[in-house]
Specification:
alpha+beta; seven-stranded antiparallel sheet
C-alpha cells in the first residue's frame, strides 16, 4: 500500500519520540552525564567509525583547548553540516542554565579539530551574532526542534558557532582530511 503524502516514514516515529523525550527536564538533568560518556566510549572502541548520538543527528567530536587548563578537551556534539564543508555547533547544554564549557573553550581558543566521519579536520570557530546567528538558529531548529524548548528554559542566549576548515598545523601532527 502506498504511503499518503505527508505521512511519516518508518524512521520518523522514533525520531519524534526521541525529540519529545529530549525536551524533558529529566533528560536535561541526566543526558549531559550519560550521552557524552557513551559517545566517547563507543567512538574510541570503534576506532572513530561510530558515534551513537549520530543515529539521530549528525555529530562530531570536537577537540578544543581548555580555556583555563590549556589541555585538549574532547566533546561529542550534535552539529548542522554546512554546504562547503563547515559545521554549526549549538551550545544548548540541553537547556541547562550555564553555557557548556566547550563554548568557553572556543571563545578563548577558536582553533580546534573535529572528528567528522572518522577524519580529524582542523577548524576555526566563530561565535555568530545578529542576522547570521538568526539564520543559523533557524537551520538548527529545522534539524532539531527541541533546541527551541532548550532556549525557552534559559535566560541566556544559546551560543551558536560556525566552524570552518583551516589548513592543518603540520607541527601539531593533525591528520589531513
Amino acid at each position: 500500500m502506498a504511503r499518503t503524502t505527508g505521512s511519516p516514514g518508518p524512521r520518523a516515529l522514533p525520531v519524534r519520540l526521541v525529540q519529545k523525550v529530549s525536551s524533558t527536564r529529566l533528560f536535561a538533568r541526566l543526558a549531559p552525564r550519560v550521552i557524552p560518556a557513551l559517545d566517547r566510549g563507543v567512538h574510541r572502541l570503534s576506532g572513530g567509525r561510530v558515534l551513537l548520538s549520530a543515529r539521530m543527528l549528525p555529530g562530531v567530536i570536537l577537540t578544543s583547548t581548555g580555556a583555563r587548563s590549556g589541555l585538549p578537551r574532547r566533546t561529542p556534539l550534535a552539529c548542522v553540516p554546512q554546504e562547503g564543508g563547515g559545521w554549526l555547533l549549538i551550545g544548548s547544554n540541553f537547556g541547562r542554565p550555564a553555557h557548556p564549557a566547550w563554548t568557553g573553550n572556543l571563545l578563548a581558543h577558536p582553533d580546534a579539530t573535529v572528528d567528522w566521519q572518522g577524519r580529524d579536520i582542523p577548524v576555526t570557530a566563530r561565535l555568530l551574532t545578529g542576522a547570521e546567528r538568526a539564520a543559523a538558529w533557524r537551520a538548527a531548529l529545522a534539524l532539531w526542534p527541541p533546541y527551541a524548548v532548550y532556549q525557552s528554559r534559559v535566560e541566556r542566549e544559546i551560543r551558536v558557532f560556525r566552524l570552518t576548515r583551516r589548513e592543518p598545523d603540520r607541527a601539531a601532527g593533525a591528520r589531513e582530511p
